[in-house]
Amino acid sequence: MARISIDKTTSNLRVGFVSNMKLRQRTRRKRASSLIELEKTAAMVVNYKTKDLISKSVLSFRKYYPDIHLLIVDGSSYDDSTDWVYKFCQEDLNSTLIACTFNIHHGPGMNLGLHLLNYDYVYIFDSDTFLNKASLLEQMFKIVRDLPSWYGVGDVVGVQDNGMDDNENGFPYLHPRCMLIQRCMYFKFHPFFKHGAPCIKAMTQIKNQGLTKLLIDFNVDAFLNVNHGLIKTCKRYGYDLKEKK
Fold first, then answer.
1. Hey, which of 9-13, 16-20, 56-60, 240-244 has the most confident mean pLDDT?
2. Which of 94, 117, 204, 209 has its CA 20 to 30 A from that of 159?
3. Residue 161 domain-assigned?
4. The domain containing residue 217 runs over which residues?
5. 85: number of CA atoms within 13 Å, CB side?
6. φ, ψ (nearest 5 deg) of residue 204
């Protein structure tokens, strides 16, 4: 297990501290899949005080992808979920724990992971999203393999400018509950940030530049048991759609 502690004095990615902390690709056991893309893929989830969710979510991912490097960003939970994550990462040699001393929040947590993970692709999933079927990533790669360029694959929904759902009149928004991101494209747009819809600025830029074709819609629910809207973290701790300065 690799364990990295992050506090507020080292959390600003613009300072450049990540240049010496990148989590590089490791030598791993040969995977059953022949897809070369999986060898270039890492996974990431952000945890905040949800032991019952994070354990089920992580273990469901590991059931189908036991060898993909998994990064868990813990947002200063300081509860049983932190204990569970720490123990899991001690036992799972292909995982890394980022232990924050403050609540980093979902968007900045994803942004931190995308900077640290030195992989071509990063699969991001919410702690209340449970994988229940094999070949999710394989199918995602299948639909983008012949595309000249793409930003991400996942559930593309319609939203308003403030991130509220609007499938009828809104613009495309790649939902972070379950998505595959191409890192080289991620850095061309606004980073994920502290917001109830943490991808909204990137999606707005993509829309304004006429590049919504970079967002690839995929039926993630065919592979998931999703508790979104029932016991999710925002239900427990709230959303804040106003960016904090």
1. 56-60
2. 117
3. yes
4. 2-10+35-237
5. 33
6. -65, -45
CB of 44 closer than 8 Å to CB of 139: no
What is the CATH number for 214? 3.90.550.10
Number of other residues whose CB lies within 10 A of the CB of residue 224: 22
Backbone angle region of 109, left / alpha / beta, with phi > 0 → left and psi within -120 to 50 → alpha: alpha
**What's the predicted TM-score (pTM) here?**
0.85
Return d(Cα 39, Cα 188) in angstroms, integer.
23
144, part of any domain = yes
Rounded to an integer, what distance in angstroms lies between the CA atom of residue 20 and that of residue 109? 18
Q: Minimal CA–CA distance to 50: which of 92, 6, 80, 87?
A: 80
pLDDT in tens, 43-70: 999 999 888 899 999 999 999 999 999 9
Q: Coil, helix or strand for 12? A: coil
- Looking up tokens 């204990």 gives 83
Total of domains in the chain? 1
**DSSP structural state of residue 124:** E
Q: What is the dihedral of CA 187, 155, 25, 150, to 10 degrees?
A: -50
